[in-house]
């Protein structure tokens, strides 16, 4: 457990999340998800968590582990075609994790998702949070549209609104 990481998480708060993602940015991200899902039968969720607190922080829970927990809690796995995608940002660590259901993962693989995470993290290091998330959504959209094209009958199975934890 790193004291530096604990300090970052203890100093992170809702104000930092609001600064990185003001209402206009949250609305733009939601619109990007809506636009994306019109082109494919997949489902995308975006979650930003300011910082870990309590037991997860002192257990030194990794962002990947937390993202898997959130994937499960939000039931992103519960889609008809097993093609749900969670884009998770742990703001205090500026760490992006993409957790996907098996239907889409078998087409893209871990290296493909990691490349998207790295691209987003580059934006975040430069302070371009909204642009980074939207670029990530667009990259995920490319994979979903290729492997799960819109068929006209697809329904929106999961909410499009970003989740702030």
UniProtKB/TrEMBL annotation:
Q: Which domain of life is it from?
A: Bacteria
Domain annotation TPM: ranges = 21-141
InterPro entries per the record? TPM_dom (IPR007621)
Pfam families recorded for this chain?
TPM_phosphatase
| PANTHER family from the UniProt entry | BLL7265 PROTEIN, UPF0603 PROTEIN YGCG
This chain belongs to the protein called TPM domain-containing protein
Record organism: Tardiphaga alba
